[in-house]
Amino acid sequence: MDSELPDIYCPFPQRTNPHVGHTRGHLATWIRQTGLVHRESAMHRFEQADFGAFVGMVYPTAGPEHLDLVADWFVWLFLVDDQLDDGHLGRSPELVRAVVERMRAVVDGSAPAPLPGEELPAAVIALMDLWERTTPNAAPHWRTRFAWHLVTYLTTATTWEAGNRADDVVPSEETYIAKRRHTGAIHVCMDLIEIVTGIEAPESLHNDPRFITALEAACNHVCWANDVYSFEKEQVLGEIHNLVHLVRHHRGLGEQQALDHVAERLALETERFLTAEDELLELYPELTGLLVPYLEGMRSWMRGNLDWSRQTPRYNPADVGQYEEPQQYLEETVLGIAPDHAEAAPCAAEAPRQG
Questions:
Q1: Cα 144 to Cα 159, 198, 313, distances in angstroms
Q2: pTM beyond 0.70, yes or no
Q3: Keywords for this entry (predicted)?
Q4: How confident is the model at residue 1 (pLDDT cuts 50, 70, 90)?
């Protein structure tokens, strides 16, 4: 790519968690126990991404147990997302409907006990473990919100994006921005701020328009920055679900102009966050004890996402080019659906979604 990545405005300090080393070791054990990663190429890509470093940057104050937990959530989300975006399933939503329903049942408590000898997909096994470790002490309204965000991520990623690919639909910028916060599972990650900080934000705060604005701006910042850093790779792969690509498409801009335009919008989202943050702290001095760590958590997400994106090879086009076959790093065991079940589906290598 001849264009240069623009500077992204993010006036928050770089931070990292001191427990990252421990979490890296924990992740290596957990992915094997749950069966999420087996093949050598998938393990190589997993290790290169360094999700332990990522989680340490975006949750810099989490204790070791909570850092391990959110790191497991990260890995689960990224590996499931790879299947839904980069593999043959990215154009075949009907093939993943059953496993998504099984995941939904885990979340809503209606999942049947496994039958004798039944082999569940690794993603379901891992989700059962995550749900059991995350929710026991959480408030009912938090569990409800978290479950809705998680299920909305799964259904949006498996229907809306896959349907667009299958039907060659290019979404509008407005539609994409609204959906992107769900397809990126960023609401799920922001919900986990309450778990790692030990706070319980009342529903009245979550419904406050200033809090909604701050959260939406932070989520947009993370998602759009991801689109900037993954743009080159996604162009190589023909992916349409990227804000830089959509800006080029709908506005007729050049590549560098589109990148700069998105960077300018990112700066506006940062200012929108800062304004809402000031208003919240001024309006609710009695909630300072939970507002400060929550807002700090959003700041850490915006800063940490940038720092990790700059160093990870995950968004480098060579990440795909190093494999003899496209998406060779994917694990069939994650969702329990082998490629030969989708022989009639178009090859998703034409349009994977890299999140």
A1: 22, 17, 35
A2: yes
A3: Lyase, Magnesium, Metal-binding
A4: low
pLDDT bin (cut points 50, 70, 90) of residue 287 is very high
Number of CB atoms found within 10 A of residue 230's CB: 22
Q: What are the Cα distances from residue 211, in Å, to 36, 207, 286, 301? A: 36, 7, 15, 16
What is the reported pLDDT for 329?
A: 41
CA distance 111 to 102: 7
Query: Once rounded to an integer, what is the mean pLDDT over residues 192-207?
Result: 96
Q: Determine the Cα–Cα distance for residues 229 and 226; give it in Å rounded to an integer.
A: 5
CA distance 327 to 349: 7
What distance in Å separates the CA atoms of residue 37 and residue 6, rounded to the nearest whole number?
Answer: 35
Distance CA 275, CA 135 (A): 32
Tokens of 297: 């958590």
Output the six-digit token pair for 156. Answer: 């949006």
**51-58 vs 40-49: helix crossing angle, rounded to 10:** 30
- Kindly tell me the sign of the dihedral angle through the C-alpha atoms of 50, 188, 332, 162: negative
Taking residues 60-72, report their average pLDDT.
Answer: 97
> Can you tell me the distance from the alpha carbon of 191 to that of 180, in angstroms, rounded to the nearest whole number?
16
What is d(CA 274, CA 270) in angstroms, rounded to the nearest whole number?
6
Q: How many helices (H) and strands (E) does the chain have?
A: 16, 0
Side chain identity, residue 334? V
pLDDT band at 338 (very low <50, low <70, confident <90, very high): low
Per residue in 88-146, pLDDT tens?
544 555 667 777 888 899 999 898 877 787 788 888 999 999 999 999 889 999 999 99
Joined together, the tokens standing for residue 226 give 């991801």
